[in-house]
Amino acid sequence: MKNPAADTDRIARSAGKVGLAVMLSRILGLAREQVFAFMFGAGFAYDAFVVAFRIPNLLRDLFGEGALSAAFVTVFSDYEANRSREETLRLAGNVLVFLTIVLSVITLLGIWQAENIVRLLVEERFELTPGKVKLTSWMTMIMFPFMILVSLSSVCMGVLNTRGHFFVPSVSSGFFNLGSIIGGATLALLMPRFGQPAIVGMAVGTLIGGLLQLLGQFPSLKKSGFRLVPNLHISDPGLRRILMLMVPAVAGLAALQVNVFINNYFASSLQEGSLSWLNYAFRLFMLPVGVFGVAVSIAAHPVMARQAAAGSMSGLKESYISTLTMAFCLTVPAAAGLIILAEPIIRLIFQHGRFDSFSTTMTSQALVYYAVGLASYAAVKVTVPVFYNINNTRFPVIGSFLAVFVNIAVILLAVDHLQHRALALSISCAMTANFLFLFLVLFRKLAGFPLRYLAAGLAKVLTASAIMVGWLLLADGLFGVRGAGGNIMVDIPLLAFCILSGAAVYGAALYGMNLPELRLIVRQLRERLTGKGSQ
Predict the structure, then answer these.
(1) What is the pLDDT of residues 218-266, one digit of tens each?
(2) What are the domain boundaries of the chain?
(3) Cα radius of gyration rounded to whole Å, the chain
(4) Contact status, residue 60 vs residue 150, Cβ threshold 8 Å
(5) How far apart are CA 532 and CA 315, in angstroms?
(6) How far is 6 from 277, CA to CA, in rounded Å?
(7) Does position 4 have pLDDT exceeding 50, yes or no?
């Protein structure tokens, strides 16, 4: 396979912008989790918040940032290329108005049935704790409108991505985290004065953050030339095409969210704090997924959509394999690093205030099992949009249901022995099965693609990762990084040394093996640092 220079360069450049933006957002997200850990620890209040937030967040994934964004980018890219500017603007306005109406109805129904929904999601042990269901239901009612705000934000993000603007829409979730931290923490301190639990303030802060995530994109939309043309035409072909693309996507995502419900149910039957430990670990796990996997996927989707629209299947296949190699290049070493350094990372970030050493141990165990599936999680993010680009959305749905089956099977086999760790392992196994299935199907649908190129790249990544792991184990033996703790002035430099030196060892090893995607990333970084753009 030749090096697909132009398109891969464009993807790498965009992925760099998205990765930086997502990193900023995820760091703020970790700060938000630190606030939760410090103020509430792992137990009654935070368990209730996790369940309450998961309900509107689930619907956000189904109708907003998941299914909607993928479908909208596909259709909007086609309109941008083949329709007039007025038709394109009318499509966006139609989608925004339609979404607002539909999601408002769903939100009102959700608020009305909040307690019944909560009882469906938790096991009897959760319900037996006095006041836990009532608190969870109240926070669910408060946070349900978050779904509307973040779904509208997703449309704005799709418009900007299609027009080549990646940084602001990707950093917009940082606005959410900032609003949640400042607004939520402030209100949490005030809520007891009004007879409300402090955690309710964090629920209100979620709405503040969702509003900021939407409004924060408005200046960039205006700068890109976008203007709102509000209209409602349900029979509009563009809207119908988006909805038709969303149907299988929603079905696929619904299957994945069944895994969330299943895991929540089992976690609520385990030791109190299990929901909290899993959630803290998952939030940290999502940092490399977002910075590397999601960033590469967001950057690659418009490029591959244009290639598919132009009928360039060879270009599409080359871009996909190069993008997948890039994702593995970034996520495999990240997973290895998380597995080795899980406990010191959790201890440094969360072990403050009401978050104790026992919670650190339990959360780090969950993180290790989540990390096993990190590369697969990112690979699914890269692979699914390709099925949209070739107008074949049936197989991602099948893959999602396969993931449900694998998830349940692993839980039933391992939960008695591994407890909450089994729920993290089950997600990793489910995502790996999903990716392998989608990869094999796509190979057939595209009449093959350059497997030798991918295999050679993956072999180099695994070799460099093994060298990095050897270095980290040596550093741990010399400095006792994993056994340290209790002194933040010692923990910070030790952990920073391990992470930075590990990344340097991995990068040098892989660069020496001449992986094109890494050399491209390095070139992009060098150009940004020196202020020189590519010619």
Answers:
(1) 888 888 778 888 888 888 888 888 888 777 666 666 666 677 778 877 8
(2) 44-246
(3) 23
(4) yes
(5) 27
(6) 44
(7) no
Residues in the chain: 535
Are the beta carbons of 60 and 151 closer than 8 angstroms? Answer: yes
Other residues' Cβ atoms within 10 Å of the Cβ of residue 215: 15
Max CA pair span of the chain: 68
What residue has token string 């072990």? Answer: 351
Nearest to 300 by CA among 83, 1, 4: 4
Q: How is residue 36 written in tokens?
A: 């939760």
For 362, list phi and psi in degrees, rounded to 5: -65, -40
- Distance between start and end Cα atoms, the chain: 24
> Token digits for 3?
């090096």
Taking 70 as the threshold, does the pLDDT of residue 204 lie above it? yes
User: By the 8 A CB rule, do 69 and 154 touch?
Assistant: yes
Report d(CA 206, CA 164) in Å as an integer: 29
Residue closest to 458 by CA, chosen among 398, 522, 518, 370: 518
Give the confidence band of 375 by pLDDT, cuts at 50, 70, 90: very high
Amino acid letter for position 108: L
> 405: which residues sit within 8 A by CB, 6+ positions away?
none
Name which of 165, 187, 188, 251 is nearest 38 in CA terms: 188
Stated pTM of the model: 0.71
Q: How many whole angstroms separate alpha carbon 365 and alpha carbon 346? A: 10
Of 13, 4, 59, nearest in space to 296 by CA: 13
pLDDT in tens, 35-65: 887 888 767 788 888 888 877 777 666 655 5
Q: Helix (H, G, I), strand (E, B), or coil: what is residue 326?
A: helix
Rounded-to-integer distance, Cα 72 and Cα 91, Å:
10
Residue 525: Cβ within 10 Å count: 12
80, pLDDT greater than 80:
no
If DSSP codes are grouped into helix, strand and coil, which group holds residue 224?
coil
Using CA atoms, how far residue 475 sits from 19, 103, 164, 170, 337, in Å, is 28, 52, 42, 35, 12
d(CA 241, CA 236): 9
Helices marked H in 419-450? 420-445
Beta carbons of 11 and 517 less than 8 angstroms apart: no
Whole-number Å distance between alpha carbons of 476 and 502: 11
